[in-house]
Amino acid sequence: MRIALATCRDLPDWEVDDAPLHEALRARGVDLQRPAWDDPSFDWSSCDACLIRTTWDYTERCEEFVTWAERISALTQLHNSAEIVRWNTHKGYLRDLESNGLPIIPTRWLEAGSQVSVARELSVAGWTRAFLKPAIGATARETLRFDADEAGVAAAESHLARVLSHEDMMLQPYLERVETTGEVSAIWIDGRITHCVRKVPVAGDYRVQDDFGAHDEPAAFTSEQRDLACRIVESVPGDLLYARVDFLESDDGDLLLTELEVVEPSLFFRHGPEAAEALADALCKRAALKA
Fold it and tell me: Where are the beta strands (DSSP E) in the chain?
């Protein structure tokens, strides 16, 4: 059985979190390939399946990446599917989840090319501290935390003048608890939650990625929180193999969905090695069904 784990050309040497998955697949006799998703020389049809993993450069070439996923789907199994990739790469999918009654962070959706008065938006929403993020993005790219005072609004207006000219943005209330309790995530593999993690930024920061010095650790979800994470995953249109459900706490301590990552999420196998075994089993089982 030959399986490709799609990656990118400039993957950093320090990225080793997927090593348990590599070992689990090789232990099952898999001929494991790790091509860059945009490598024109790789024969995707030679593989029984392709699992999207560390394609970290796709956010700058999103439409090209989605087109690649659609093309690969005609050559081999793709997990998750091209339909899910197209749906999930733009954070507008959160509106679909909200319409299903799921708790997302309150969001004002700002369309590329539009004229936006940040002061007016904040006044309507009643927010005293806010957060800007792109609708297509990762690793805190083009994000901004700001206060609803004169200086903060001016900084936000300047930020939007540069970014909103060419991409959609999201305006949200800034959830202060990210600085203390961090972001919590449930990792879901083939029908069940395998483990949960907490990502905590350095003091005074909001960025929960280890690129910015944040640390991560195992987390415990209550049964109600696990049920919420499962409901979110189960609302996705299509067949999922893996997902990561990210939450921030509101001021009241309720979990609000910040992202549902079903394209190339870090799955934090270092905190749940059994998840690597579960993903390897599920992937091999599906790849064996290749027509």
Answer: 2-6, 31-33, 49-52, 77-79, 108-110, 129-134, 144-147, 169-173, 183-189, 192-200, 215-218, 242-249, 255-261
Q: Is 169 in the same domain as 181? A: no
Residue 113 is part of which domain span?
Answer: 108-174
Q: Does 94 map to a domain? A: no
Q: What is the pLDDT along the chain (291 residues), one digit of tens a residue?
A: 999 999 999 988 878 899 999 999 999 999 999 999 999 999 999 999 999 999 999 988 999 999 999 999 999 999 999 999 999 999 999 999 999 999 999 999 999 999 999 999 999 999 999 999 999 988 889 999 999 999 999 999 999 999 999 999 999 999 999 999 999 999 999 999 999 999 999 999 999 988 889 999 999 999 999 999 999 999 998 889 999 999 999 999 999 999 999 999 999 999 999 999 999 999 999 999 864
Does one domain contain both 144 and 190? no
pTM equals 0.95
